[in-house]
TrEMBL record, chain A:
Name of the molecule in the record: Carbon monoxide dehydrogenase small chain
Enzyme class (EC, first level): oxidoreductase
Species for this entry: Phaeobacter italicus
Gene: coxS
Alphabetical list of InterPro entries matching this protein: 2Fe-2S-bd, 2Fe-2S-bd_dom_sf, 2Fe-2S_ferredoxin-like_sf, 2Fe-2S_ferredoxin-type, Beta-grasp_dom_sf, Diverse_Oxidoreductases
Domain 2Fe-2S ferredoxin-type positions: 2-78
PANTHER family: OXIDOREDUCTASE WITH IRON-SULFUR SUBUNIT (PTHR44379:SF5)
EC number: 1.2.99.2
UniProt keyword annotations, A-Z: 2Fe-2S, Iron, Iron-sulfur, Metal-binding, Oxidoreductase
Molecular function GO terms recorded: 2 iron, 2 sulfur cluster binding; metal ion binding; oxidoreductase activity
Length: 161, 801
């Protein structure tokens, strides 16, 4: 067992974990942050994306021990303390960028990482960036639209309704 | 009124903040146990020895169970009692559960499950449709055959005949949330089960059987699924039953979720088909007759295969009036995963069959494929409103109940079937087509998508390009709405109005992302004339609404919306009668609107009205019930009216293909879809978009590959390719048809879950069109048309390419 300490959504969190414990497992099982979903267990679907020191990481592909000392941001920390949604969350809600919702936390976290590096991505850039985030319900159209809207761009250009 | 507004999904806020709970997110006691199955590693064998010592000694293992340890029924089948929870002496596919490990963590259970030593005496495995057919390995006594007219002579005397056989692959559901269940023992031996299921009543039924209790002792709750698509209609039974048995044995909460590899290895998928056709056309391209043979890969257990294969037959006409038809359907038993429900439930396979015939005929006759299709359409709707019909009550359940009456695998009783008048256009199963709107819908789509100009431009472009070719194709959808097992077309609801005017809503439908809860809440809000915030949506719960049907067959809103409407109207009528008397007004003067109750010249807030009714001792709680009218269906004869109405749609897809690699892209898709008078256009458009992409995925990139031992090699997203964000069409125009349901459905809306899935057929046909541009003969694509299949097809028709 190893002791890990990290900052999660601005608060210090620590725990004793096995060396093999994945960051996704630590967040879900030790910290109860179940908004980070595990969809494929093999680092492909992207439902478990969180930010580690500001970068998007699939948390099922990183050991909790590797995150020792890191700043972690998860979906639970994205809204303001008073519950106000951030601009990406609001856009996913307003533009129907979700159905079953299982991929949504990963999508929102990936979108946040994209917009940090590229505040006005083109539709093409969004599509390429989201290659690692699978969604089985929406056909992606409204997800792309939501991210365009969140970046302050005109969504009427994103094909039609 | 809340109905018809494009409101966001009811749980959108919970989803974007990570607060929405799926089964694996529900807090559970610290001592919760976790389960994993030990799986068969051979496709067909007798088990000669089972050495589980190493499993028992593995870290964290609390118990290991085999078939011999099960206290009651060892069965998780939704139909023919042919699917043991744990293998009973023999195994029938790679991935079949053989033993159950109960351990202190998910990982400990999975690690231990791999330590089992299973000795086998292998038996020949049936891994292809040919093998199964040769061995006469099938469900039912022989093929089902539906006929109308004399197809053989119609084809033989026709001017043109097209004939071929092609393969149509299955499909993995790939719901993002894998199968999951949790069971918590209750104080009196009862069981509370949380299950990611489309069918809580079925889970309740199977759990009750497995732990030897009446259904009243088992309560199943389902708040939401992370996607279902049919994959959670029966496939969740095993996990819920395993959890309940383990919880009963240990007295502790037990939880099980399949890892993705296990999920794909264990659970059933869409049925793969091989379709043979022979069809005759006159010189103008009018179909004279067609014969289809469906070879259906049902896998090892019956599950829902019979109604799936039936529905494929029932969609072998799609949108076309076929004077003479014969459909022969073989439901073959193979040593693969037991194929199950998947969005469309066989309908897509049947429809691909006739669309392939139309495509082939257009190529052979040199006609525009759209024009040929239009010439074969059913006659347009004559009157926009259907006469009311009484529910058909002839059904009497078979007394032996050999199957499972709660599921689509149940046996159907023969029905008295009304014969339509001779001048009425009928389907191959003799049902009148009275609501056909594809003439108008097609014309509008051709116009808005600029089809004719683009088709000409593509021909010009192709003439100047050797390596890349573009293709464009149209396909229509006519999809029958109702469970074909007539007795399942019923639903219940439970509505309470509290004394503060807030409303608690419950019904038998389950939420899997489709927005059912929101649409039904909109119905409730509209009935009471209140804002949606006053309506509380609650988890599906077998203790609140009993004897529900699966949320399946696209029926969720139709059935549950009507049941909720009935419950709300009962309460509303009671309130109106009381308030009318109290304020000395006629009942007809009471109106519910704008969060107020208007009683002639008086006006109360809804809250105040609720409080007055409560103090006046008026019951503010009611159940509601609905059964779909007009249905009468005999599946053995293939005659009757299995469907209340049809939902329509059409799509035009444009693609580009690279002959050197077979790689391809969808450049543009235009869709016009009929959701009747939509309950929520935003949610419905979302369904259409997602369904199109999923349908196109089925027919293009999603290939299931089993090796020669029967091992599924595509058991993870690394090898099984569902559409990703960059695969969706570059231009994607989706609109809803402006119309109302001719039948008296909930606010004249139409079901929308499955029908648009089949719009994806246009992508497959567009690939066929593009490949056809490389040479003269018909491309005869199999499905899925992967890059490899396209590469092969190009070489078939243009060997020098």
């Amino acid at each position: 067992m190893v002791k890990v300490t990290m900052t999660v959504n601005g608060r210090t969190a620590s725990g004793e974990v096995e060396g093999r414990t994945l960051l996704s497992g630590f967040l879900r099982e030790e910290l109860g942050l179940t908004g980070t979903h595990v969809g494929c267990d093999t680092s492909q679907c992207g439902a478990c994306v969180v930010h580690v020191d500001g970068k998007a990481v699939k948390s099922c592909t990183m050991l909790a021990a590797e995150a020792d000392g890191a700043e972690i941001a998860t979906i639970e920390g994205q809204a303001a303390p008073d519950g106000t949604l951030n601009v990406i969350q609001q856009a996913f809600q307003d533009h129907h960028g979700l159905q079953c919702g299982f991929c949504t936390p990963g999508m929102v976290m990936s979108a946040a990482a994209l917009l940090k590096d590229n505040p006005k991505p083109s539709e093409q850039e969004i599509r390429e960036y989201l290659e690692g985030n699978l969604c089985r319900c929406t056909g992606y159209h409204n997800i792309v639209k939501a991210i365009m809207a969140a970046s302050g761009q005109d969504v009427s250009a994103v094909a039609a309704e | 009124m809340a109905v018809a507004k494009p409101l966001p999904h009811d749980a959108a806020r919970l989803h974007v903040t990570g607060q929405a709970r799926y089964v694996d997110d529900i807090p559970s006691p610290r001592d919760t146990l976790h389960l994993a199955f030990g799986l068969s590693t051979v496709a067909h064998a007798d088990i000669t020895a089972l050495d589980l010592d190493a499993v028992r000694q593995s870290d964290g293992v609390v118990a290991v169970l085999t078939a011999d340890d099960l206290p009651f029924d060892n069965d998780v089948s939704p139909s023919a009692h042919d699917e043991p929870l744990l293998a009973n002496g023999s195994v029938h596919h790679i991935g079949q559960p053989v033993f159950l490990v109960v351990a202190t963590s998910h990982r400990a259970a999975r690690v231990a499950a791999r330590k089992g030593q299973i000795s086998y005496a292998e038996r020949p495995a049936l891994l292809t449709l040919e093998d199964a057919l040769a061995a006469d390995s099938r469900f039912e006594d022989g093929p089902r055959i539906y006929t109308k007219g004399d197809a053989d002579s119609a084809i033989t005397s026709a001017a043109h005949v097209v004939e071929d056989t092609f393969d149509l692959g299955g499909q993995e559901h790939f719901y993002l949330e894998g199968q999951a269940a949790m069971a918590q023992p209750q104080e009196d031996g009862g069981m509370l089960v949380n299950s990611s299921t489309q069918h809580p009543t079925e889970i309740q039924h199977k759990v009750a059987e497995a732990i030897g209790l009446p259904m009243h002792a088992v309560r199943v709750e389902t708040r939401r699924m992370g996607g279902g698509f049919g994959g959670k209609e029966s496939q969740g039974n095993a996990l819920a039953v395993a959890c309940a048995i383990a919880a009963r044995a240990t007295g502790r909460t037990c939880k099980m979720r399949y890892d993705r590899d296990d999920d794909m290895t264990i659970t059933g998928k869409r049925h793969a088909f091989r379709i043979s056709y022979r069809a005759g056309f006159d010189a103008e391209g009018r179909i004279q007759g067609v014969e289809f043979t469906h070879l259906v890969d049902c896998g090892w257990a019956q599950d829902l295969s019979l109604p799936v294969a039936d529905r494929a037959m029932l969609h072998s006409d799609n949108a076309y009036l076929i004077p003479a038809i014969r459909i022969e359907s073989h439901r073959l038993k193979t040593n693969r995963q037991s194929a199950t429900a998947y969005r469309g439930f066989g309908g897509p396979q049947g429809m691909v069959g006739i669309e392939r015939v139309m495509d082939h005929a257009a190529h052979k006759l040199g006609l525009d494929p759209v024009e040929l299709r239009q010439r074969n359409y059913y006659a347009p709707m004559q009157s926009a409103t259907a006469p009311a019909g009484a529910p058909h009550d002839s059904f009497v359940p078979a007394p032996d109940a050999a199957g499972d009456l709660a599921s689509r695998g149940a046996p159907a009783a023969p029905a008295d079937v009304t014969t339509p008048a001779a001048d009425v256009q009928t389907t191959p199963y003799h049902m009148p087509v009275e609501d056909f709107i594809l003439h108008e819908l097609t014309a509008e789509l051709l116009d808005t998508s600029d089809y004719a100009t683009r088709k000409a431009d593509i021909a010009t472009w192709n003439a100047g390009n050797d390596r890349f070719k573009r293709g464009i194709a149209f396909s229509p959808v006519k999809f029958g709405i109702s469970f074909t097992l007539t007795h399942l077309n019923q639903a219940g609801a439970l509505v309470h109005v509290y004394q503060d005017g807030s409303v608690h809503l419950n019904h038998g439908g389950t939420e899997m992302g489709q927005g059912l809860f929101q649409k039904v809440a909109q119905v409730a809000a509209s009935r009471f004339g209140i804002s949606l915030e006053k309506v509380k949506i609650t988890a599906t719960d077998t203790a609140k609404v009993p004897n529900t049907s699966a949320t399946a067959a696209s029926s969720g809103s139709d059935l549950n919306g009507m049941a909720v409407k009935a419950a709300c109207d009962t309460i509303r009528d009671r309130m109106a009668a009381y308030l009318a008397e109290r304020y000395q007004q006629p009942v007809s003067a009471v109106r519910f609107e704008g969060d107020r109750v208007i009683i002639g010249s008086e006006e109360l807030s809804f809250e105040a009205a609720a409080m007055e009714c409560y103090t006046g001792r008026i019951s503010l709680s009611s159940t509601g019930y609905y059964k779909t009218p007009k249905l009468e269906w005999d599946r053995i004869q293939g005659k009757g009216r299995p469907f209340f109405y049809f939902a329509y749609g059409a799509a035009i897809t444009e693609v580009v293909v690279d002959r050197l690699t077979g790689e391809n892209r969808i450049l543009r898709a235009d869709v016009l879809h009929d959701a009747g008078a939509s309950l929520n256009p935003a949610l419905d458009i979302g369904q259409v978009e997602g369904a199109y992409v999923q349908g196109a995925g089925w027919l293009t990139t999603e290939e299931l590959v089993w090796d020669q031992t029967g091992n599924l090699r595509t058991h993870a997203p690394s090898t099984y390719k569902i559409p990703a964000c960059s695969d969706r069409p570059d231009v994607f125009n989706v609109a809803l048809w402006n119309g109302e349901n001719r039948e008296d459905s909930i606010y004249r809306s139409k079901a929308v879950g499955e029908p648009p899935f089949m719009l994806g057929i246009s992508a497959w046909l567009a690939l066929s069109d593009a490949v056809g541009a490389y040479g003269g003969s018909y491309p005869a694509l199999n499905a899925p048309a992967t890059s490899e299949e396209i590469w092969r097809a190009v070489r078939r028709i243009a060997p020098e390419a």
